[in-house]
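Hey Z.,

So I finally got round to the 3,4-dihydroxybenzoic acid thing we talked about over coffee. Here's the setup:
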Amino acid sequence: MRTSIATVCVSGTLAEKLDAIAAAGFDGIELFETDLVTSPLSPEEVAGRCADLGLTIDLYQPFRDFEGVEPSVLAANLRRADRKFELMHRLGTDRILVCSNVGTATVPYDETAVDQLGRLAELAAEHEVVMAYEALAWGKYVSTYDHAWRIVEQVAHPALGVCLDSFHILSRGSSLDTIADIPGEKIAYAQLADAPRMNLDALSWSRHYRLFPGEGSWDLADFVARMLAAGYTGPLSLEVFNDVFRESDPRVTAVDARRSLVALEDEVARRNGDSALEVLPAPIELGGFSFVELAPGVSDPRGSDGSASETLSEPSSSSDVERMLQALGFTETGSHRRKNVALWQQGDARIVVNHGLEASSAGIAALGFDVRVVREAAARADALQNDVLHRDHRAGEDELLAVRAPDGTEVYFSELSSGTGGGAGRRWTAEFGDGDASVPSAHPLRIDHVALVQPWDRVEEAVLFYRSLLDLTATEFVDVPGASGLVRSRSLVSPAGGIRLALNALPDHARDDSDYPNHIALVTDDLLGLLRRLDGLPLLEVPGNYYDDLDARYGLAPGLLDELRAANVLLDRAGDGEFLHAYTRPVGRVFFELIERRGGYDGYGAANAPVRLAAQRRLTGALPSGTSPAALLPSRTT
Ligand SMILES: O=C(O)c1ccc(O)c(O)c1
Ligand SMILES: [Mg+2]
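And the result:
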């Protein structure tokens, strides 16, 4: 389908917005009045610029506060409309959005709105303009789409249809059934926006928190399918007012926006078997975590050139992260044939430490997933305008495909070979000597989830990136109060629960994310037993107050409470399920969490995350550094 986007969705001047929108591959725009009024370009120049960029102006908007007014106000409103219709000629667009009156309406009767919009439709027809009447969710008398449709139906003029904006409709929880009653040609325009669930008045929610489809909580595929079934033939058009996007790089936002529509069309096609729509290769089904790759950071004694540092007395060649892996019971099972990369394993958990990566501190560089066919994964990634990285590989080595996530993490896909001796194997492990030599352990581990801290302005994009590419579903955001601000956390889970990712959005002020490490959560079926064997594992210390509170809440058996306290293990419960977990101290920008899930517990212990954030803050000890207003003033010399 044709794709369009309102200029209000991205930051910049009008010229910058148009460049970014065209570069992302959109077919058209909704031109926002403010963007035109503030531009030095004449309407003809804007039209020319759009034509040069291959963009059509699909809609001019908004025209406000027209109907339901006193006769004296009506005359002024018609004159105002006449000027806008003339302007539209100069822009070369024939469609305008008319929002329901939020301010000047004083006559609550539909007959008045019908009569006045009828007169406006006559005027529009003279100018060969079509109007799309939109019920704003906070409209004074008209605030629902079915009401707007009843009025438009009574006006019964070819120059007037409705605008269906998913935000106004879904934010009010309106039934979507009326859409089927609207003839397709009377849906003059459709606008798409997703949103997070919030308890906020509609106006504030709409003006600050709208998101692109797939980034919020609504089912936009159902909304679009219903409009298409009604016979809507216009573009899929985005109208997203969002405070973060308004201050982000418009080129990044535009690609994110366009990805949302490509993924949405695919979802509608897939669900409804609609052959007129573009279908992409299927969302990638993940078999499991193949590996997590760590960069050891500058403290790495082997350095990026592989030479051992002399300052460390430790005879082993391990870096700080490798010492942590050792403390966690991992074994170095191999090193890569031609790269300075070590493979560490414990049970079914594989961690690759890449000494060739240059990073100032240790951290997660890549996630590896098992998939059935790498080529299909590549095709979907490509169709979704992802940054596909074909990594250097030699004959006989596994072909690894990587895609760069918005936060820079590389996401690898590798195939399981069917294996001649039965049992699927990972081809890439053969490049590490013995290969997939699992080391026997009394408490085998598996990677349960990986939690990635996201830059404050890219978390919505990250949700869409993972959700559109992979077969994952997203939970709602959970707010975690941290010692340095509120962290918003959202998880993505594969259908069988084998893959979990937690995306943690930093507090807005924390534009430097170095205080917020990522983590790898390793699951065992006996956490307390495992910890008894891992003597000397440096865990985060849990305050005594936490255990007093735990006791007050759960009334635990005294023996158990003491055991948890002595081991620095935290506990959470949900329904019949129980979650035990402990956090290691961070190594650079990464730490490990050891967890045990009991009785179908499906969460992440979010209730305990504030304890961790406070403990980490005590370790780094830094107060947030703000800019003092005085520092922005010119300095006086006299
Ligand atoms: O917030 C507003 O005023 C506004 C304006 C135009 C729209 O299309 C809309 O959905 C909202
Ligand atoms: Mg709208």
